[in-house]
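Appendix B: complex inputs.
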Amino acid sequence: MDPKPRLLIVIDIATVILLIIATAMVLFYTPVERVMGLVQKVFYFHVAAGWAGMLGFLVATISGVVYLITSNRKYDIVGLASVEIGMVFALINVITGSIWAKPIWNTWWTWDPRLTTVTIMLFIYAAYFMLRAGIEDPERRARFGAVYTVVGFISVPLTFFSARLFRTIHPIVVGANQPGATGAFDMSPSMLQTFLVSLFTFSFIFISLLWHRVRLGKLEDKVEQLKYKTME
Amino acid sequence: MLLLDQGPAETSAYLIAGYVVIFGGLFLYLLSLIIRTRKLIKEMKRLQDDQI
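Resulting structure:
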């Protein structure tokens, strides 16, 4: 395996430091919300995880487009890595949302438009792995995967705007809430600062994980090539 | 108003559960990356040895 680039080491260190700072801000700097109590503090990383998940799906779409134009294998590796990491963050987002919902909505889950669209999005991206697993030819797999990420991305803005377009109980962070939104709150300056730091931190975690996953993808390719050579 | 008079709800267990999911999820994914990388390096060495 190629030695770890210096920039990646810097990003890794910065990510750990940022995560410590963001966690400390969430726990000690932000106030306790006066109705919801401590569970409101899940919000900072819940939204940040959602952002990182959607960022992953966006990067996968861009990689897909670039792959379709250039047929360069490295963009397929980036696409696969982005979807995988996007799924991790999206799952964290959904599970933490459910944990927040239990004391606030008095239920772990409800088929609200936002929760429904995020579930559809998760299934769409889970199917991406099944699609890839079903195709043996690497070039065909990459091409189909690229087209799929481009088409599948429709689910991402649909999920993001669902809470704004439809009647929902899911609170909106930026913009006006629906009259039926439950668990909405006004952000104080310390809450807003922590929220922005959390978004920044999760962007760093995403970049760091993506780079590591791409390196792993390249290693997978090398092993695959060696296997073919050995078979010959 | 009644809710405000009562003070914040006791929801600390949910906060802990939320952060266990966040850090646990990230840790498990990182662990999977490390395990997969080690496995591949082992496999690569084996294949290189076979070629020799």
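The radius of gyration of chain B is 24 Å.
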